[in-house]
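Posting for a labmate who doesn't have an account.
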Amino acid sequence: MKRLLAAGLGAIYQMGPAFRAGESGRLHHPEFTMLEWYRPHWTLTQLMDEVTGLIQTVLPLPSVTTMTFQDVFLQHVGVDPFFSPLEELAKLLGPPALPTTDRALLVDRLFVERLEPALAKLDTLLVVTGFPPWEPGMAEIDPGPPAVARRFEVFIHGVEIANAYQELQNPVEQEQRLIEANRARVKEGGKSLPIDERFLQALRAGLPPCAGVALGLDRLLMLAFAKKSIAEVIAFCDPIHESGTRLRNSSTPCP
């Protein structure tokens, strides 16, 4: 889609299946449906208003709350993800113990163990902005201080619904991020992925300033219909082995 943006197509969207092998659970399925769109020359704030308006149309909530990543941690976890001592972050985690030299790893675990359960109790459409620079995805970086990724995520009852970026236009920085992501995959025992050279060529040709978002339709429908799992809102949900492999010939119903 970004190659189309670079070619001058203008505002674009697509809604269709996405695939991610090896993930299954209440909020994950190897095949799911995404709504993704991009707005050239829009700010992240403009996109935020459009995204929350769309979600409220499907699932009205009493309010929309916007908080920075830093503030949501301070309010619900009691620590500053950017500046609290690493030892203080580590003390809040359960086993297994993590090394106190990696802030990104500690904050990620705290997000899952301490923050998400707290967010699950909120009856609001929560927009979290200003993510740490070590979680930039494909977003631009605001130098701060503190430096933050120009992106936001939308949560309903602790469930991530949408992920948006002020899209990175710098091809050199984007290539370096792809290389670093491959290094991280290999370090964790995974496989290195091919660098998308056509995507980088499109960035070199000139991607217009734009904001983009991906929204998980299955998760939104799950919440709108008060279901417990996205499997309950997927029309033809193939049963999944615990390894994440699809069992197409299984007679087990799904869900």
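Reply:
Got it, the structure tokens are right above this. Residues 241-253 have pLDDT under 50 and may be disordered.
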